Amino acid sequence: MIITRKIEIYVHEEDKELKDNYIHTIYKWRDAIRKAANLAVSHKFVQANAPQFMYMNDSFMEAFLAEHPECVKVNKDGERKVKIYVSDVLKQEKGLSEQNTTYRLMASLLKGKVNSDIYGCLNQLISKLCKDTMTDVMKGETTLRSYKNNIPMPFSAKSLSNIHGVEEDVTNADTGKTRKVKRYYFTLFGIPFACVLGHDRSNNAVIIDRCISGEYKLCSSSIAFQKVTDRITGKKKQKLFLYLCVDIPKKDEKLDPKKIMSCYLSITHPIQYNFEVQSKNIYDSGVKWFSIGNAEEFLYRRTQIQAAMRRCQMNCRWTNGGKGRKRKLQALERFAEKEKNYVHTKLHTYSRALIDRAVKNGCGTIVLVNQEPREEKAKEDNQKGEPFVLRNWSYFGLKTMIEYKAKMAGIEVVSQKEIEGEE
Fold this sequence. Notes:
alpha+beta, 3 domains, eight-stranded antiparallel β-sheet, five-stranded mixed β-sheet, 15 strands, 44% helix
């Protein structure tokens, strides 16, 4: 299973002039591939919509169809319809496949300016993305993707070299105490970088160590600039991040696929589960369910943050003007970020606890119980008609986290409808 970790990095070079040159080079890469990526997406759109561009004149259309008679179809009523595919409008030459056309475009724009590994990986990503979304674009359900200054600069795993960790002594300026801290460094296209792990609550150091030892396999990753709000000053600063993609092998747990854990997302508890209940008797009132978390634990802190946000919103009108909307809503955005981080942390905690219990009991299958009857009942019971608990519960996020954590442990996650359909 491939996971992505976001790690802050910076250019590790003591010589100021050389460091500025490195940073300037990265910015030039960013600007060049942003232009190339937007052009490549436009070319993909033109290729996929070739019939729409055949309005130049009748002679052009007839000349094209004379060379490609396979594009003309005649229906039962004798009407002639033209169906043109991407392969029909491309030159029939070696090295001019649909994906290779945009690679040649990028090579003509970026050769000598950007490492070929970057625009090669970028072309693969754009080709895959356009292939997945072009149908929706044709229907008018979405628009073409456009790239801005935060565009990721992708590269293959072989370009990431000299990854190593070094233990260094760090002295606390306030207490004067010295402690050992392990810091990580790597080289990318000849530019030295260092990682900023901070408190490392995501255990990124453990993942990097396992990549160094060979336990985990590095995959194609990327670097990107992103504006981050400083917690102290409130100002936004441009920082560089590494999106490290790692292939984590499935854990070799002794799990029985026939042993099922049934679980549902309750109104009174985040998760309730049972090892004995099967698909047909999940709503049996005589069955005892085990709980993970409770409503007070989850909702208390979230509603407190929301109440503080409302108070802040009312007081925003007294904020000093002169700096526009951004200045007035600065405090409000901080509370919104706090709520988002709190919910994200709690959902990770609950989903991890569920998967740990499944592994401990050797369950190879988790059945997610259908939530629709419970959600409808909660809406009816609410006197005001507003599903307060459901609005704050984040069902979809919790389901997603359960599914990807189960995949890492080698557990199959199925819905109740799938089980009943098989029966």
